[in-house]
Amino acid sequence: MRTLAQKSLALVAVALVLAIPMAIAQGTATVLLPEDLATMNPYTTTAAITMQVVPAVIEPLVGVDPDGQYYPILASEIPTVENEGVSADGRTVTWRLREGVTWSDGTPFTADDVVFTYEAATLGSDSVRAGAFAAVESVEALDDTTVAVRYEDFNSSYLDQFQWGILPRHATGDPTNMAAWDFNRAPIGTGPFLVGEWRTGDRIILDANPNARDEVAPNLERVIFMVVPSEETRAAMMQRGDGDVMLWPGSNLRDVWDAAENVTLDTAPEIWILRMFLNLGERGNPVDGQAAHPVLGDVRVRQALAYGVDYDLLIDELALGRVVRATSPFALGWYACEVDGYEYDPERAAELLDAAGWVVGNDGVRVAQGAAHAPDGTRLTLEMVGYSDFRLLEQTMLVTADLWRDLGVETEVRTVEMSVLFGGWSDEAARKTGDFDILVYDTGTGINPQVHVYDLLHSSNVPRVENEGAGGNYARWSNERADELLEFAGTSPDLDARSDAYCEVAELVNDDVPQIFLFQFAGGNAYATRLEGFRTSTWAGLMWNVSDWRVE
């Protein structure tokens, strides 16, 4: 039996343990930025640099992890139909918030702050996010930890509604005049850090938030963002050990990082996919019922061209292995689809061209002989157009054109300025009017693919006189089943069901080849080997997991 003295000592020992903080923030990480922020209010700017810093201070309701999966931050759960967070008709989303969360000044975080964020985003004359809330009918605080967001119709982007963060009503100001807020330079947030000092054009110093909840309490005591415009200077600082993270290092620095023992380049796939848009319609005839393209109107020709691309050559030799293969528009995240795609097979390509009625002529160029949409004797000639000042894109076109010429496809390559390629209907841009054979450029979709892929693939979005060129289905592709699936995906709150629909669309695209997917770009950041816990994410800015960072 223990004596009273022994019991007293034991109680003292327990009390001492309980008095010791579970974790003590320590150490400083230095992040090198190419430019300063204009504001730390993400509702008044679209500058990309802002969201590389602000999430360390201001948090959203939910986040997206590197695998493209949603996870709760200020919300206590992801709202779904199953947990009654989404109504049966999809028009009301009920957000249940974490309890016990406080702002960095100690004030409780409540549902009213979510309501205020909506007010600021929609009422502020200087808000740049009003458009993202256009489908919202109302936002109501049902109690301190419950918010109801009501929509005119189901909004497939409901999980992203407050992606820029929640603003504190008590520490901001008039929601109609955000530009006048002191908050813009000294924000009060719920995140792991708070703004300690901001020296314009020089540095922003973030200190650990003493009121941060356990889930986001940082390991670091401080993060310093130094503004260093020169890329060469930033790289030299990283090599000397004067920086821990370099944001957006240029691809020209890869050899530098390979040779540096104290710096690592951390990459993640980007959303951008380099692809070819094949025009299935008659050139320059953007009207309903247009005739088929004389060459590309035949799916066998389109499949032959896809088999005629040496993807490994493009990825390994031209891009030096710094890109990854893409086989569909649904490449990443919760909607990622496994599609086999096409491999380089010139023999199969030749067989398909023969079967499509394109035979090799005396000079090696194929000519129509029983082709589906071209008179006999028509030469198989195609023009490939991309935008200028992008060496890898131009090399990709030139190499592919050579491979297609070996198949008997006479291929011309041309580049134009981006403003020309991406011109509008009033500019009579070829992309809009359909006056092209093949366009080559990169495009991609965010964590909610619906708006982007609906625009690219739904038949209603073929640019035409009736919609004044508003659509983005530049391939002029029309597939009734794909239309049904895309319409369903835009009305269902079930992410699994939407993913299944998208993957069926991906297979239809793979079979019908309105686009040929070449490769997906990768991007990243350089970081010092002494910094632990750093990870680049496709879906979030630099600070998405700053709580996990620690220095040796």
Structural overview:
The protein is an alpha+beta fold and 552 residues long. It has two domains: 26-262 and 529-551, D-Maltodextrin-Binding Protein, domain 2; 270-522, Dipeptide-binding Protein, domain 3. 24% of the residues lie in helices and 21% in strands. Strands 1, 7, 8, 9, 10, 11, 12, 15, 16, 17 and 18 form an eleven-stranded mixed sheet that branches.
Helices and strands in order, then pairings?
Elements: H1 4-19, E1 28-33, E2 62-64, E3 70-72, E4 92-96, H2 111-123, E5 136-143, E6 146-151, E7 193-199, E8 203-208, E9 222-227, H3 231-240, E10 245-246, H4 254-259, E11 263-278, H5 299-307, H6 311-318, E12 323-325, H7 346-355, E13 358-360, E14 366-368, E15 381-387, H8 391-406, E16 410-416, H9 418-421, H10 430-433, E17 438-443, H11 450-457, H12 480-489, H13 495-512, E18 515-528, E19 531-532, E20 550-551
Helix pairs in contact: 5-7, 11-12, 12-13
Report the count of strand segments: 20
Task: Indicate the CATH architecture of the largest domain.
Answer: 3-Layer(aba) Sandwich
Binned strand content: 15-25%
Output the CATH topology of the largest domain.
D-Maltodextrin-Binding Protein, domain 2
How many domain modules? 2
CATH C-level label of the largest domain: Alpha Beta
As a whole number of angstroms, the C-alpha radius of gyration is 27 Å
User: What is the fourth-level CATH superfamily of the largest domain?
Assistant: Periplasmic binding protein-like II
The backbone outline, from C-alpha atoms, is globular
Provide the residue-averaged pLDDT: 93
Structural class: alpha+beta
Distance between the termini: 45 Å
Q: What is the overall number of helices?
A: 13
Detail the poorly predicted runs.
1-22
Major sheet summary line: 11 strands, mixed
Helix content: 10-25%
